[in-house]
Amino acid sequence: MRSSNGPFNWTAVFLFLSCLYTLFTPALTVKKQDFKTCDQSGFCKRNRAYSDTAISQSSSWTSPYTLDAQSIAFKGGQLTGIVLKNLPQSGENLRLPLTINFLESGLARVSIDEEKRQKGEIELRHGSKARKERYNEAEKWAIVGGQQLSKGAAVSKDSEEGTTKVLYGPASGYEAIIRHRPFVIDFKRDGETHIQFNERGLLNVEHWRPKIEKEPPKEGEENKAEEEQKIVDPAEDESTWWEETFGGNTDSKPKGPESVALDVSFPGYEHVYGVPEHTGPLSLLQTRGGEGNHDDPYRLYNSDVFEYEMDSPMTLYGAIPFMQAHRAGSTVGVLWLNAAETWIDIVKSKLSANPLSLGIKGTTTTQTHWFSEAGILDVFVFLGPTPQAISKSYGELTGYTQLPQQFAIAYHQCRWNYVTDEDVKDVDRKFDKHSIPYDVIWLDIEYTEEKKYFTWDGMTFPDPLGMQKQLDEHERKLVAIIDPHIKNTANYWVKDELVSKDLAIKNKDGNIWDGWCWPGSSYWVDCFNPAAIEWWKSLFTYDRFKGSARNLFIWNDMNEPSVFNGPETTSPKDNMHHGNWEHRDLHNINGLTFVNATYAATLQRSKSEAPQRPFILTRSFYAGSQRMGAMWTGDNQALWSHLKASLPMVLNNGVSGFPFAGADVGGFFGNPEKDLLVRWYQAGAFYPFFRAHAHIDTRRREPYLAGSPYREIITKALRLRYALLPSWYTAFREAHTEGWPIVRPNWWVHPSDPAGFALDKQMYLGSTGLLVAPVLEEGATSVDVYLADETPYYDYWDFELVKGRGMHTLDAPLEKLPLLMRAGHVFPRRDRPRRSSGLMRYDPFTLVVVLGTDAQGAEGTLYLDDGESFDYEQGAFIHRKFTYDAATQILRSEDIGEKGKKSDAYAMSMQGVRVERVIVVGAPAEWKGKEEVDVAEEGAKASAGTRKVDCVFHEASGKKAAWAVVRDPRVEIGKGWKIDFSSGARDKKEL
Asked: Which range (441-450, 625-634, 637-646, 854-863) has the least confidence?
């Protein structure tokens, strides 16, 4: 332990550390040269060359892959067979085992392996101890359900010669047409082809072959020999088969070339979405060049790309290899279950006649080409037909979004770094002084002793428990960063245990791998190892992580992993993990495994008291990470372009199954101007994960420092978030049970309106009908908002009517966030300002009922639980549906929850929590003069239980709609009731 000799010594130490860490501060822009292009990635370049060869020889090109008809077997919903790869030079046919599972969920799963590697009949180079098989354990981490084989799937008796047709899915409405020679699969729904595999003949499984030593070229003829090889077959360029060098790092390849590739076509579909994480528009661009298109494929290879560039297919921190294609009336998708480095080319073309593709409609086809460096070929097929069905199926397969604690969806205040425990407490007090709500304050790496996790710097954080106690007084939380790198230093108990238990990632020689990150020399926990997870769980107990309390939660950063001296700032691909898998096999899952371990650890920690839901923020992610926490878009910049990019990035994550997403409000790098900061808070108030964060070299920018009028405007945005927390929590419940995005793009909400399929600058909050269009342009005082139909919308702030399909320009001075309410919806609020969400637990509710100009009905829901425990799994929740019937003019509340053993106890705890106000926007004109409404509660007869309650009607004025307010109807939020707005006879029946 270090000791303090007074304030002067501490200042000197801090200044020294600050100077030291500027050595690690990134440059002002991303170093693109540190990250590969496709042309610099051997297998990517080879597979693109393979594609180029096929396209250039389209009239004579035939895929060398055929399905051996004699090998086909079908039983219990599973088809097996052998795909043969013909090698023209030798005449050999390599055997590639094929499995197609037809699932009860309506999904199909196609996997292709390689028999020689599968059986271990290969030789590894360099004396490697790596596994000989192709990596086949991605499903162990990503897949949690939906795998039951279909009992109703069957081979059709009318299969034509040379094809096998399998009927499956709901009412056997799906078909898989498997052509044998060449091997092609068409997936049909209701007789129409929606997805095609290998239709372009780009299937490519790089088989194992021994390295044949060749005579080295004569001096001066090296380039000539290489060019001659490329001319013979550019896809068989051997220069990167056996080793590959980039950025001064050489990757040994003990298994030789082993990439897998497949073309996936979406006939009749112009728009595709997904495969995060990238910057750029929600509707993915083409990648083969041309004006407005990318020149490189979209890359999935989790890396620490700080200050990333805009509109780029470059890799970022996370990878979800899930793509959806959409057109009016139909949504389909594929999940490419591969954890290795992956690239995806996209080309859009006009459809040409194809006699083998009967039933195809539409004018545009999106053709995609996927290639991964290693592993088996493993693809799930989703035939929809709606966005909601796709989201539900994907959630069933990979797991639904975690239902977080309520504090996690409120506002988070963070920077690198709050420098002392007194600093934290001072920030906490100043939020209260300025009446600004917040729930969580965060600590970056400086809280530790010399970057050693599970420690506190005794000089700067001498009393962590006292700090957490002050936060807890207003039900606030602390989040501390814990990264996967463990400092390699003497007398550090965590490192000593990691080494003694042999739980660290190894290098290619089988020795513990040493890399560099914030602490300097570091070791990395191998969370693929079950024993490592068990050990990691032990570190979080209160007696081991001394100074931690129940209101401390965890931030997992740098888990790509980020390695300062590694190739592309990450781990060498020939490092070794548990089970002797190479890092290249499983790179993109690495971050998920670390969060999985931390989730298990924090869950176990809480079991010593009342179990509580973990909260974990992760930077790196993969399919399935949504089960364990939240993500953010990494090290962005304080620039308008980065604010603008945040919306499509968050939306794309949402439709890709990980909706608990956000971006650093204000920008991580740099100092935002005041207008940018304000607009970012307004946009951030509609990120599912809402956190402000800043780099250590930036100026302090807590909201109370902004000065007037900026402080007041930011506070307004924060209070809007807190008022709408009931609606946010209900949207999270939908994500948790249905897989639906929390904030939704136009195409997802209006799937039949092609004019809105590419929109990504506006979004809907859950099922509330709230449509937000943040200002994203510097100096703008208005925004254009697109409405998909004739349904009326109203300005959230003053009830001004906005109606008519098409673009509408809304005034948006700095103090105003453009926010509309769609007619036909009811949404809940809590309007009393509080210091934190926990203090709102028993506050009354406001219900906003939004009606159309034709007096149409409206409906909405509210989900409510204790916001902390797992008791909701045993019925401890309130789930109400609110319905306004235009014909009877009655608003009802009905129970839509299922009872459990803790339902009654929770209902008892919420007795007295009431609805204090009902606001009806777009109130009918005949309500003019209305002063009362009739209210009846559950179980009370109208003759005995109906009572009169005040109602105030406000007439329409100019463009502003009429509205009415029911003041304190004195009904409980958890019970059934009705409010009768009609002026006719009262309903004498019981509810």
From this structure: 854-863
Q: Is the bond leading into 277 cis (omega within 30 degrees of zero)?
A: yes
Residue 678 CA to residue 815 CA, distance in Å, equals 8
Residue 925: closest CA among 985, 868, 983: 983
Coil, helix or strand at residue 722: helix
**What pLDDT, on a 0 to 100 scale, did the predictor assign at position 158?**
87
Q: Which residues pair with 950 in a beta bridge?
A: 932
Classify strands 411-413 and 440-443 as parallel, antiparallel or unpaired.
parallel
Whether the upstream peptide bond of residue 417 has omega within 30° of 0, thus cis, is yes
Chain position carrying tokens 């781990």 = 571
CA–CA dist 400, 409 (Å, integer): 17
Could you write out the DSSP letters of every residue in 937-959? Answer: ETT--HHHH-EEEEEEEE--BTT
Q: Which residues are catalytic?
A: 557, 560, 635
Strands 793-795 and 243-246: unpaired
Q: Is the pLDDT of residue 292 over 60?
A: yes
Distance CA 600, CA 748 (A): 33
Domain limits of the chain? 65-207+258-398, 401-632, 749-980
Res. 939: pLDDT tops 90: no
Residue 610 has pLDDT above 90, yes or no: no
Task: Tell me which of 841 and 986 has the higher pLDDT.
Answer: 841
Its sign, for the CA torsion 593, 733, 328, 294, is negative
pLDDT over 50 (residue 706): yes
Say if residue 319's pLDDT is above 50. yes
| Pure H helices in 567-692 | 583-586, 590-606, 640-655, 674-684
The DSSP symbol for 731 reads H
What CA–CA distance (Å, rounded) separates 447 from 457?
Answer: 6
Report, as an integer, the average pLDDT of 24-35.
67
Position 307 confidence tier, pLDDT thresholds 50, 70, 90 = confident
- Report the pLDDT averaged over residues 898-917: 97
Cα distance between residue 172 and residue 166, in whole Å: 9
Q: What CATH number was assigned to the domain covering residues 401-632?
A: 3.20.20.80
CA 435 to chain centre: 32
Confirm if 345 and 297 have CB atoms less than 8 A apart: yes
Q: According to the model, what pLDDT value does residue 355 have? A: 53
**Are 401-632 and 749-980 the same fold in CATH?**
no
Torsion sign (Cα): 326, 332, 336, 337:
positive
The Cα–Cα gap between 164 and 155 comes to 7
400-441 tens-digit pLDDT: 999 999 999 999 999 999 999 999 999 999 999 999 999 999
Mean pLDDT for all residues in the chain = 93
From residue 738, how far is each of 108, 395, 513, 731 by CA, in Å? 20, 7, 42, 10
Mean pLDDT, rounded, for 920-943: 86
Please determine, for residue 223, whether its predicted confidence score (pLDDT) is greater than 90. no
Strands 770-772 and 763-765: antiparallel
What is the DSSP code (8-state) at residue 835?
A: S
How is domain 749-980 classified at the architecture level of CATH?
Sandwich (2.60)
Q: Cis peptide leading into 672, omega within 30 of 0?
A: no
The CA distance from 75 to 81, in Å, is 12
Burial class, 497, CB count within 10 angstroms (exposed 0-12 / middle 13-18 / buried 19+): middle
Report the candidate in 72, 347, 53, 350 with the shortest Cα–Cα distance to residue 202.
Answer: 53
Task: Give yes or no for residue 220 having a pLDDT over 80.
Answer: no
Can you tell me whether residue 75 is helix, strand or coil? Answer: strand
The DSSP string of 7-48 is HHHHHHHHHHHHHHHHTT---SS--GGGS--GGGSHHHHHHH
Token digits for 682?
């307004």
Alpha helices in 346-401 (DSSP H): 387-398
Q: For the domain bounded by 65-207+258-398, which CATH number is listed?
A: 2.60.40.1760
Rounded distance between C-alpha atoms, residue 283 and residue 649, angstroms:
11
